[in-house]
């Protein structure tokens, strides 16, 4: 019985870690704002 509880707990910890990793492993300073994106697009155009 304890083995099943331990296995379920390990699966829960792995699931929470995967969610945390996908939420917070992006850009260091967050997503670009709409103003930054517009400025970058204008600089690329000839």
Provide a count of the helices: 2
Radius of gyration of CA atoms, rounded to a whole number: 21 Å
Mean pLDDT: 79
Proportion of residues in β-strands: under 5%
Strand count: 0
What would you call the shape? Answer: rod-shaped
Order of helices and strands: HH
Structural class call reads mainly alpha
- The level of helicity is over 70%
Low-confidence stretches: none
- Tell me about the largest β-sheet: none
Q: Give the distance, in angstroms, between the N- and C-terminal Cα atoms.
A: 68 Å
Care to describe what's here?
It is a single chain. The mean pLDDT is 79. It contains 2 helices and no strands. The chain has 46 residues and is mostly helical.
Topology, pairings included?
Layout: H1 2-24, H2 34-44
Offer a quick outline of the entry.
This protein has two helices and no strands.
Key attributes of the depicted protein:
46 residues; 2 helices; mainly alpha
């Amino acid at each position: 019985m304890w083995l099943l509880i331990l296995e379920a707990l390990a699966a829960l910890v792995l699931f929470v870690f995967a969610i945390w990793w996908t939420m917070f492993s992006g850009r260091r300073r967050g997503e670009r704002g709409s103003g930054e994106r517009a400025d970058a697009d204008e600089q690329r155009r000839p």
